[in-house]
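Researcher: Let's do a round of design. I'm pasting the structure tokens now; please hold your answer until I've finished.
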């Protein structure tokens, strides 16, 4: 019995030795990872200290001594000073800012070119040689190429063709009551109300008729950017004064159903 017990204990000890100790292996791996992180932080800190004021990613004085694959923490990135004067400001080519001195934040921008109103006139505008349908066509085509030759150029064409643009009184140009005084406000409202015109796939003038009060109603079927049909009514008037005297301009632009009906047309 004693011999059998000894053999049994020896077999148990051998089996225990063959089974890996997962707790020990896990602890060892954690220790190795911790040591690797410490070495990595030490290397990154050494490189950042040696880089001086030019410290930063590759191309900003960080190439010498930079260790590929090393990762800087958010705190370390914030500690590295950036010489903003080494960056070329976006206003360098701006005619308003090119001669301006560099400010403390490293920028030369005076903020003038960021104002959407500080742009030349649109390439398309009312003319006495245009009829009502021509004026509608030019506006829709301008919204098709909204950002050519510059951002929101198509919206600027709509503004130029609007007979009430710049007026202090309330208007129903969009169908609902709205002001038409500020061009920058007009940009936002036009992009919301006329979003289906942006990058449209084409249009067809369905009908142009004279209204009892002398205005002209132009009905248009337009395909939006995904090719779906939308229907619009342009109420056009011939201006009687100002620089566009005798030219056709938009009094109302309203989206309707496929029967060219809208509740907003009751107030036009």
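Researcher: That's everything. Go ahead.
Model: Designed sequence:
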């Amino acid at each position: 019995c004693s011999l059998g017990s000894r053999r049994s204990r020896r077999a148990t000890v051998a089996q225990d030795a063959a089974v890996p100790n997962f707790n020990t292996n896990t602890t060892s791996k954690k220790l190795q990872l911790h040591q690797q992180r410490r070495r990595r932080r030490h290397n990154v800190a050494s490189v950042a200290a040696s880089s001086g004021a030019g410290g930063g990613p590759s191309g900003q004085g960080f190439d010498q001594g930079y260790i590929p694959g090393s990762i800087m923490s958010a705190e370390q990135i914030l500690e590295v000073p950036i010489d903003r004067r080494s960056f070329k400001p976006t206003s360098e080519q701006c005619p308003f800012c090119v001669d301006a001195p560099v400010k403390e934040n490293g920028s030369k921008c005076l903020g003038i070119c960021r104002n959407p109103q500080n742009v030349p006139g649109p390439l398309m505008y009312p003319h006495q040689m245009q009829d009502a349908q021509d004026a509608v066509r030019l506006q829709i085509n301008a919204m098709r190429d909204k950002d050519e030759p510059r951002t929101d150029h198509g919206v600027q064409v709509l503004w130029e063709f609007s007979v009430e643009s710049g007026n202090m009184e309330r208007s129903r140009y969009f169908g609902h009551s709205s002001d038409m005084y500020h061009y920058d406000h007009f940009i936002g409202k036009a992009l919301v109300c006329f979003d289906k015109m942006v990058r449209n796939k084409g249009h067809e003038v369905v009908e142009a008729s004279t209204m009892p009060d002398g205005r002209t109603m132009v009905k248009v079927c337009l395909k939006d950017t995904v090719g779906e049909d939308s229907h619009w009514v342009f109420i056009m008037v011939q201006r009687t004064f100002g620089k566009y005297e005798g030219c056709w301009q938009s009094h109302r632009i309203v989206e309707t159903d496929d029967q060219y009906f809208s509740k907003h047309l009751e107030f036009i």
